[in-house]
Amino acid sequence: MESKKSKTRMTSDLIVYWETGLLDGRQPLLLGSLEFAKDGFSETIGKSLGLYAVHPIDYQDDQICIEYNFLEATESFRYGLEPVSLAIHGTSDVLGLIERMPGLWDGPISVGVFLDSDSLMVLEYLRNLHKCDRDFNRKVTIHFAYRKSIFQKGCRPVDVPMTNLTCREFMANRKSWRIPSSFLLYPYSMMRNVARRGAKSDLHFVIDADMVPSIGVARDIMPVANALLDGKRKVVLLIRRFETRKGADVPRTVADLKMSMRAKRTFEFHYQFHPNLHLIKNLPYWFTKSRSSDNVSAWEIEPRMPHWEPQPILHRNDLYAPDYVPSRVKDMVSLAFKLCRAGYSFHLASYAFTVHEGVKTSNSLFNVAVATHQQLHAKHRAHKRFADEIRTLYPDTVDKCGNFEI
Predict the structure, then answer these.
(1) Is residue 136 classed as helix, strand or coil in its secondary structure?
(2) Could you give the CA distance from residue 127 to residue 132 in angstroms, rounded to a whole number?
(3) Which class for 135: exposed (0-12), middle (13-18), buried (19 or more C-beta within 10 A)?
(4) pTM of the model
């Protein structure tokens, strides 16, 4: 005979079908709503005893619920100039990377976290971390998103369980509290946009959570970013990126980067796997400019369109990536192309850079599976929509930027 617990689990893990703009057609998915089935009596008692903190949802569309400012940074980092917010995103699987970022970035950090029913507890974890880790509290603002179930009509307040853990207890056991994520399809473009829209400053450095910024870049980049990015001119500021062999020291100064590259430990980003996608030409000139002065400068470069994936700093008023571009199918490339077609110029910053730990030589089985699935189910519809939008909005720049293929 099944226990009450197993029945409850079966109820909350119903297989449902959902319609989404990311996929073409109906796909089976574990019930991903945070409106999962619970024992109503225990939930009511929990609220009355103060065991849950209720947070309102302030945004919704057809499939996704988003809460901005679930946790807010306590420091603004405004020193006479507009600070550059690090805009990162991920699932509960990258909690360790998110946790280390305050030690790598001396400025505001905006994080978009995507949840499913199995990773709801990550909100409790992040709230404890925000309460107990001083640097995390000062710098990090957390937003989260989840996909509604077929039974959910709107976005409702999310109940986040409260704990009686002391900060000493939490910090001593924090790694054991991390919750792995179980879903496969992750909306990269949408979550990058969530991190940007929720940022506490107008300047957004859009990077992946596994990148390591050079030392002092948050403050060093502010003068040139403020000078170039005013929300009116069509300008993008780019930051070079590299990758270092596993086990090697990650270079975080220009001098260490040069030495590591000479020793064949550090390379231009994805130089083996997909060099043309990320290439920014004339690296020797960049080193010359970077070593001649500690002050960051920038100069215009020619974009490598139509398929190019640079690492940008943008103003809040600048364009956002199309949310509907499929996961692992040129999601970041589409933003660079859109910026080019809209008439933006691209400027490369000296001195500042980021490094990825590990040299990519091939796609993981997971990435291949996701990309293949999205190619089959979403590619053609997304490509038609994106191509139609670009043709309609920016008909005069095809000679400069070419035609885009997802």
Answers:
(1) helix
(2) 9
(3) middle
(4) 0.82
